[in-house]
Write a structure and sequence with these properties.
Elements lengths: L22 H20 L5 H5 E10 L5 E11 L7 H10 L1 H11 L7 E6 L2 H12 L2 H9 L1
Parallel strand pairs: 2-3
Antiparallel strand pairs: 1-2
Helix pairs in contact: 1-4
């Protein structure tokens, strides 16, 4: 009898970075992202919050069994130019997730359409903070002195 191979946590499909997720998870995540973008672009969701907001879907992370998908959204601006509340937008998306899941089932050829959960993508805010920090005069001076 051969000994079992030790468990490799890097291949366990953790929700971390893209290198720990399988090629299949990445591919399904991209399919869902494109399909959801199309559904949101059409704008026939009959929700006043979603109708007036411009939303970008930055990433979709599928679970290893492809039964769950976490959708990361970036609320841009409202159609009337006002900044929007991400919590309100996430609540509206969660409220109509059954409709969105039904649209995905019609658009994609997956064995099972994953259950959707929505989260705000804060990576753009963090990148903006780092950019502002690097553009400060004292930081520029320190970087050019070397």
């Amino acid at each position: 009898m051969q000994p079992r191979k030790p468990h490799n946590p890097a291949r366990a499909g953790k929700p971390g970075n893209a290198s720990t997720r399988s090629q299949r998870q990445l591919r399904v995540g991209e399919l869902i992202r494109h399909a959801l973008s199309d559904v949101l672009a059409r704008g026939n969701l009959r929700d006043p919050i979603l109708e007036k907001n411009v939303i970008t879907i930055s990433e979709v992370r599928a679970s290893p069994d492809l039964r769950q998908a976490t959708v990361f959204v970036v609320p841009l601006i409202t159609t009337d130019g006002k900044p929007n509340d991400p919590k309100e937008l996430l609540a509206a998306l969660t409220k109509c997730k059954a409709h969105l899941r039904g649209q995905l089932a019609r658009m994609l050829t997956l064995r099972a359409t994953p259950d959707l959960s929505f989260e705000a993508d804060l990576s753009f805010d963090e990148a903006l903070k780092v950019d502002r920090l690097l553009n400060r005069t004292d930081v520029k001076r320190d970087l050019t002195e070397r």
